[in-house]
């Protein structure tokens, strides 16, 4: 095509998009341009983009009717999608045209994008991973459906009052959601509670009937997921709960109207709110009901799709494969068995074979307290029939263990799905492992530790079903959309193939690492990104920060294992040095934190308070004179992440070794040009291997040393006594230096560190300080730093979620990919 042709086509596209926006403004919103608000313009633009996806959506859904294609069902209790519009425009390849179209309507596209409230249907990394995977599945043209819950209230909005986190309900649906399409005809009934009755059918078979206490209905809400410039639109299918008409027949029989209404309220509450705990969850009836609810709807929908494709029940495992994103959906194993046996009259052995071939399980955590367990009485109360099936799965499984390891009753107890110790419970990780044909960890270290510790017995039994799939993130959202300056600099030099071929193309940047003018351009991009963030901080937090200082950023959920407090102790240490006139070697730094704490996690909330208290003291001390600044950026989410990752010089990935399964924030930072200070944990290790040790700031204990330290008896108090600088920092916090003299507020924090220090903050403190000094020295030489930054980005190709999805396709799902 000649340039004029391209130009004409583009002009036509602009006209077309403009017309489409105006039509939607009129027909869907009932507004004229004169009275339209910015939000109206956002809605109209969203509808215009959605319209373009729907044609692909329909043809893609048609394609899924092709019997030979195996469909991937990605089961996840969380999808942290982030705002849709910007991403849709990038993937549809119409961002420039849309920008021009809205400009011609007198509006700025960024103002329009700013209107979108993100669907916060996830807590953090796990939910965001699911979202990156949907983007890659569509981009790689893998027929797939993401299945989850349409929470009416997602993760709470975080505000900060007097330094403390205050949670505000996330009413993300209040202004309407232009992206979803309700499918009332796709509705399924889900049973809860009650009891079971057995009988013999007319062929003489033993059968079980679940006499439920109540039934709820799940309705499908579909959100299109565009692939990158490939005409494909995938599906995110979320279930909303509703009461069925005769909501509680038993209660009505007894004339218990109020009781019946209570049950109705319960059913309607199932999809009401996301549990805001990213790691562990107490045994809540509603949470278990949520998990069963969305899994049952999804599997019933899979039978519907099977039927549409004209396939038989026996063909289920060849027709669909289901990935369990952690144990949250692992009840699916019992539910598929139930559907096959109770509803489709399949024999146990055949059903079990089919079930195992259908599921694969991704483990996401090594923290013992985060391994999901449900108390047996609760489970029996909510899911009596699935529990019977779990008992049967377990007894058959344990027979094979006793057969293979005669006399090893300890092993039988360890491997049982039912934990018989103390208050009996159901171990969901065991159910997921036993019911799957593939189990994977999410980084090389994590997989190694899974095999070694958490699932060791299972690994011994069947080593060939364990895999590693290192996490990845999508370069469409995390580079092209959220770092347009860097994206355009990169494209100018190596072409735009990197956007969907990161693994092969990004490395071409290496040749420019020593190029002085490229280095300058690279540095300028970072500098402008930092200025943008500095402006935003000024607006949101009211703190003035210097864009020429080192931007040292830690954004992620607040948790002791992630060790935001190690970072804070270092800041307090720098402050102490400044006060003691020992500031030599300190480079100007801005420490930026962001992240939500689970509302019931006292220590995490106290860490937020400490960060804000240190910020207040340090930022307002004239002796510091702006040398260091501390900022807590409130309400960290995908939308705010857009401004944060791209502006970082230094990425803080300082979890206790062996605790962070992978991390994905570490990848987003590094592929946007931040250098990492990190422990030997999760995907940090693989990042370091890729970018080179010389371009990575590694410190601290290794996982094995962490385990050893704890096993040998760890005395944090001794470390405190033997490290004068650490002692001074802790004493400052305790004595109220950061709390206007209040010696009570941080006492639980100090006590916990001195007496227990469960995540070895003291043990790693000295190594961290020394490593931070290396960072400061390196930053002092901007040319060298920039070169390191370029090399980091150039070598991050393997951390595209496209690579992860290809690994799943090839090793686990056995499906073709584009
Ligand atoms: C990437 C991301 C996370 C995960 O961050 P980690 O550093 O891997 O814990 C959490 N929340 C949001 C909003 C993200 O975008």
TrEMBL record:
Q: Name one Pfam family in it.
A: Phosphorylase
- GO MF term set: 1,4-alpha-oligoglucan phosphorylase activity
- Say yes or no: keyword Glycosyltransferase present: yes
Task: State the InterPro entries in the record.
Answer: Glycg_phsphrylas, Glyco_trans_35, Pyridoxal_P_attach_site
Query: According to the lineage, what is the superkingdom?
Result: Bacteria
Query: Which reactions appear under catalytic activity for this entry?
Result: [(1->4)-alpha-D-glucosyl](n) + phosphate = [(1->4)-alpha-D-glucosyl](n-1) + alpha-D-glucose 1-phosphate
Tell me, in a sentence or two, what this protein's role is. Phosphorylase is an important allosteric enzyme in carbohydrate metabolism. Enzymes from different sources differ in their regulatory mechanisms and in their natural substrates. However, all known phosphorylases share catalytic and structural properties. Allosteric enzyme that catalyzes the rate-limiting step in glycogen catabolism, the phosphorolytic cleavage of glycogen to produce glucose-1-phosphate, and plays a central role in maintaining cellular and organismal glucose homeostasis.
The family line of this record is:
Belongs to the glycogen phosphorylase family.
Query: Could you tell me what this protein is called?
Result: Alpha-1,4 glucan phosphorylase
Q: Which organism is it from?
A: Pinibacter soli
């Amino acid at each position: 095509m000649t340039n004029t042709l391209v130009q004409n086509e583009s002009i036509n596209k602009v006209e077309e998009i403009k017309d489409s926006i105006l039509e939607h403004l009129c027909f869907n919103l009932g507004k004229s341009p004169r009275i339209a608000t910015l939000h109206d313009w956002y809605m109209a633009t969203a509808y215009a983009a959605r319209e373009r996806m729907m044609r692909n959506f329909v043809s893609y859904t048609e394609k899924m009717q092709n019997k030979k294609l195996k469909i991937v069902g990605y089961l996840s209790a969380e999808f942290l999608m982030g705002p849709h519009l910007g991403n849709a425009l990038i993937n549809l390849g119409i961002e420039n045209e849309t920008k021009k179209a809205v400009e011609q309507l007198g509006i700025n596209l960024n103002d329009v994008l700013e209107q979108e409230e993100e669907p916060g249907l996830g807590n953090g990394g796990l939910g965001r991973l699911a979202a990156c995977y949907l983007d890659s599945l569509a981009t790689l043209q893998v027929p797939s459906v993401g299945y989850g819950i349409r929470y009416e209230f997602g993760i709470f909005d975080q505000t900060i009052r007097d330094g403390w986190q205050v949670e505000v309900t996330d009413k993300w649906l209040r202004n309407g959601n232009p992206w979803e399409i309700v499918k009332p005809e796709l509705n399924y009934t889900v049973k809860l509670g009650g009891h079971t009755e057995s009988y013999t059918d007319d062929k003489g078979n033993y059968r079980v009937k679940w006499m439920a206490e109540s039934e709820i209905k799940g309705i499908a809400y579909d959100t299109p997921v565009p692939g990158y410039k490939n005409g494909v639109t995938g599906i995110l299918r979320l279930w909303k709960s509703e009461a069925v008409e005769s909501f509680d027949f038993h209660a009505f029989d007894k004339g218990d109207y109020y009781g019946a209404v209570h049950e109705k309220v319960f059913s309607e509450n199932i999809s009401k709110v996301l549990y805001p705990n990213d790691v562990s969850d107490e045994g809540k009836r509603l949470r278990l009901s949520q998990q069963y609810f969305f899994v049952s709807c999804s599997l019933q929908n899979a039978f519907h799709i099977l039927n549409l494709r004209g396939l038989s029940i026996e063909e289920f495992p060849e027709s669909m494969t289901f990935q369990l994103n952690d144990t949250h959906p692992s009840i699916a194993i019992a539910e598929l068995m139930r559907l096959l046996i109770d509803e489709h009259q399949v024999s146990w052995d055949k059903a079990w074979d089919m079930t195992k071939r259908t599921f694969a399980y991704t483990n996401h955590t090594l923290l013992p307290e985060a391994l999901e367990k449900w108390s047996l009485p609760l489970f029996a109360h909510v899911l009596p029939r699935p529990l019977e099936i779990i008992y049967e799965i377990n007894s058959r499984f344990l027979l094979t263990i006793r057969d293979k390891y005669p006399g090893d009753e300890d092993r039988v107890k360890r491997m049982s799905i039912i934990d018989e110790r103390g208050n009996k419970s159901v171990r969901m990780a065991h159910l997921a492992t036993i019911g799957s044909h593939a189990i994977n960890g999410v980084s090389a270290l994590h997989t190694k530790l899974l095999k070694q510790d958490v699932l060791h017995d299972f690994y011994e039994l069947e080593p060939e079903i364990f895999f590693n799939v290192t996490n990845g993130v999508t370069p469409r959202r995390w580079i092209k959309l959220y770092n347009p300056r860097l994206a355009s600099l990169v494209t100018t030099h190596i072409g735009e193939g990197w956007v969907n071929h990161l693994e092969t193309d990004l490395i071409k940047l290496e040749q420019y690492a020593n190029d002085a003018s490229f280095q300058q351009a690279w540095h300028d991009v970072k500098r402008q990104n930092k200025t943008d963030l500095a402006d935003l901080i000024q607006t949101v937090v009211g703190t003035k920060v210097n864009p020429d200082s080192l931007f040292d950023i830690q954004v992620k959920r607040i948790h002791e294992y992630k060790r935001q407090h190690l970072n804070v102790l270092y800041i307090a240490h720098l402050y102490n040095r400044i006060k003691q006139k020992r500031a030599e070697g300190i480079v100007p730094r801005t420490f930026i934190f962001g992240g939500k704490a689970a509302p019931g996690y006292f220590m995490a909330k106290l860490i937020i308070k400490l960060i804000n208290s240190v910020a207040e003291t340090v930022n307002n001390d004239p002796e510091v004179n702006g040398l260091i600044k501390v900022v807590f950026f409130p309400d960290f989410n995908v939308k705010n992440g857009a401004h944060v990752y791209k502006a970082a010089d230094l990425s803080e990935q300082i979890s206790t070794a062996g605790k962070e399964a992978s991390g994905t924030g570490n990848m987003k930072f590094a592929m946007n040009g931040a250098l990492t200070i990190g422990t030997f944990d999760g995907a940090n290790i693989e990042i370091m291997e890729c970018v080179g040790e010389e371009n990575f700031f590694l410190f601290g204990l290794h996982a094995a040393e962490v385990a050893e330290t704890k096993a040998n008896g760890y005395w944090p108090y001794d470390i405190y006594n033997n490290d004068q600088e650490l002692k001074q920092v802790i004493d400052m916090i305790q004595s109220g230096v950061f709390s206007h003299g209040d010696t009570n507020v941080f006492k639980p924090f100090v006590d916990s560190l001195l007496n227990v220090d469960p995540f070895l903050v003291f043990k790693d403190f000295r190594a961290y300080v020394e490593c931070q000094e290396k960072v400061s020295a390196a930053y002092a030489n901007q040319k060298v730093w920039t070169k390191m930054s370029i090399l980091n980005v150039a070598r991050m190709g393997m951390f595209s979620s496209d690579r992860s999805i290809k690994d799943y396709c090839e090793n686990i799902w056995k499906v073709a990919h584009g």
